[in-house]
């Protein structure tokens, strides 16, 4: 079966919980000695504020394309059997799972490394937005992975500038990732 056929990617509509067993069963295989998983859940506090829920929005067609690209990048770096990724949209109450990743491989190192890569890339580059709702307000949040990627692009000493009047975008093949990891941004000066 083709690699893409061994990927299960779902962006779940509002109020549909993630079925963790479904994803683990999808990646399970008798030839694999490892299944690595990551589950991101809503915690009850953040920086001393009481969290009521998280709310997620996404541009679903692009999110799915980006996750497919991340899966391809993972497969090019590790020997993987199956990948399953699920992400909820809408409100996700405290204690519930908002994102789940399951990866199977013959060896645990491949599964574990690829799982960490997958969640880091999903958080850094997939167009899924999160709002934290507190007892005393709410705020849209940028993931730290996204912020680190933006800072990396904006460092002046490396010839990359994030926020100029004009930018030149070039293909870059040495980094893995969906969207941001494949571009190099350079400042273009008006003549």
From TrEMBL:
Keywords noted in UniProt: Cytoplasm, Molybdenum cofactor biosynthesis, Transferase
GO cellular component: molybdopterin synthase complex
Residues bound to substrate: 107-108, 123, 130-132
Enzyme's top EC category: transferase
UniProt similarity note: Belongs to the MoaE family. MOCS2B subfamily.
Function text: Catalytic subunit of the molybdopterin synthase complex, a complex that catalyzes the conversion of precursor Z into molybdopterin. Acts by mediating the incorporation of 2 sulfur atoms from thiocarboxylated MOCS2A into precursor Z to generate a dithiolene group.
Protein's recorded name: Molybdopterin synthase catalytic subunit
Species name: Buddleja alternifolia
Taxonomic classification: Eukaryota, Viridiplantae, Streptophyta, Embryophyta, Tracheophyta
